[in-house]
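User: Before I run my own analysis I want an independent prediction to cross-check against. Here's the chain; please return only the C-alpha coordinates and, at the end, one sentence I can use as a sanity check.
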Amino acid sequence: MDTFNLGRFSDPPILILASLAGSPKHGYAIMEDIEAFAGVHLGPGTLYGAIARLETQGLIEPLPAEERRRPYRLTVTGVAFLQGQLTGLEIFASMGLQRLARI
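Assistant: C-alpha coordinates:
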Protein backbone atom coordinates (compact mmCIF):
# COMPACT_ATOMS: atom_id res chain seq x y z
CA MET A 1 0.00 0.00 0.00
CA ASP A 2 3.00 2.32 0.47
CA THR A 3 3.46 2.66 -3.30
CA PHE A 4 3.72 6.45 -3.15
CA ASN A 5 6.27 8.19 -0.99
CA LEU A 6 4.64 11.48 -0.06
CA GLY A 7 6.63 11.76 3.15
CA ARG A 8 5.59 11.27 6.74
CA PHE A 9 4.75 13.63 9.51
CA SER A 10 8.22 15.01 10.00
CA ASP A 11 8.18 18.40 11.71
CA PRO A 12 11.51 18.31 13.62
CA PRO A 13 10.36 20.28 16.70
CA ILE A 14 7.32 18.04 17.24
CA LEU A 15 9.41 14.91 16.74
CA ILE A 16 11.97 16.17 19.27
CA LEU A 17 9.27 17.02 21.80
CA ALA A 18 7.66 13.60 21.32
CA SER A 19 11.04 11.93 21.85
CA LEU A 20 11.65 13.87 25.04
CA ALA A 21 8.16 12.99 26.32
CA GLY A 22 9.51 9.49 26.91
CA SER A 23 12.51 10.60 28.96
CA PRO A 24 15.33 13.16 28.94
CA LYS A 25 17.87 12.48 26.17
CA HIS A 26 20.99 13.94 24.60
CA GLY A 27 21.11 14.84 20.90
CA TYR A 28 22.31 11.55 19.48
CA ALA A 29 19.77 9.58 21.54
CA ILE A 30 17.02 11.91 20.29
CA MET A 31 18.08 11.26 16.67
CA GLU A 32 18.05 7.49 17.22
CA ASP A 33 14.70 7.56 19.00
CA ILE A 34 13.04 9.61 16.25
CA GLU A 35 14.38 7.27 13.60
CA ALA A 36 13.00 4.29 15.56
CA PHE A 37 9.48 5.62 16.25
CA ALA A 38 8.91 7.83 13.19
CA GLY A 39 11.23 6.48 10.53
CA VAL A 40 12.62 10.00 10.05
CA HIS A 41 16.34 10.76 10.00
CA LEU A 42 17.23 14.23 11.31
CA GLY A 43 20.69 15.44 10.46
CA PRO A 44 22.74 17.13 13.18
CA GLY A 45 22.16 20.64 11.77
CA THR A 46 18.40 20.17 11.69
CA LEU A 47 18.36 18.55 15.12
CA TYR A 48 20.50 21.08 16.95
CA GLY A 49 18.88 24.04 15.20
CA ALA A 50 15.46 22.83 16.34
CA ILE A 51 16.77 22.11 19.86
CA ALA A 52 18.10 25.69 20.09
CA ARG A 53 14.72 27.11 19.01
CA LEU A 54 12.81 24.87 21.43
CA GLU A 55 15.11 25.93 24.26
CA THR A 56 14.73 29.64 23.37
CA GLN A 57 10.95 29.21 23.36
CA GLY A 58 11.04 27.58 26.80
CA LEU A 59 9.66 24.23 25.60
CA ILE A 60 12.76 22.23 26.60
CA GLU A 61 15.62 22.80 28.99
CA PRO A 62 19.13 21.41 29.26
CA LEU A 63 20.15 19.24 32.16
CA PRO A 64 23.67 19.09 33.58
CA ALA A 65 26.14 17.62 31.09
CA GLU A 66 27.00 13.94 31.34
CA GLU A 67 30.61 13.73 30.19
CA ARG A 68 30.45 15.49 26.79
CA ARG A 69 26.73 14.98 26.28
CA ARG A 70 24.04 17.46 27.26
CA PRO A 71 20.64 15.89 27.87
CA TYR A 72 17.41 17.85 27.47
CA ARG A 73 13.96 17.48 28.98
CA LEU A 74 10.54 18.92 28.40
CA THR A 75 9.45 21.88 30.47
CA VAL A 76 5.90 22.18 31.84
CA THR A 77 5.20 24.55 28.94
CA GLY A 78 6.65 21.99 26.50
CA VAL A 79 4.39 19.25 27.86
CA ALA A 80 1.30 21.45 27.45
CA PHE A 81 2.34 22.52 23.95
CA LEU A 82 3.02 18.95 22.79
CA GLN A 83 -0.26 17.74 24.26
CA GLY A 84 -2.13 20.46 22.34
CA GLN A 85 -0.34 19.64 19.09
CA LEU A 86 -0.95 15.90 19.40
CA THR A 87 -4.60 16.42 20.32
CA GLY A 88 -4.99 18.57 17.21
CA LEU A 89 -3.43 15.82 15.09
CA GLU A 90 -5.68 13.24 16.69
CA ILE A 91 -8.78 15.29 15.84
CA PHE A 92 -7.52 15.80 12.29
CA ALA A 93 -6.78 12.08 11.82
CA SER A 94 -10.15 11.07 13.25
CA MET A 95 -11.98 13.45 10.91
CA GLY A 96 -10.03 12.19 7.91
CA LEU A 97 -10.73 8.55 8.78
CA GLN A 98 -14.44 9.27 9.25
CA ARG A 99 -14.59 10.91 5.83
CA LEU A 100 -12.76 8.01 4.22
CA ALA A 101 -15.24 5.58 5.75
CA ARG A 102 -18.01 7.31 3.78
CA ILE A 103 -16.34 6.67 0.43
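Sanity check: Residues 76-101 form the longest helix (26 residues).
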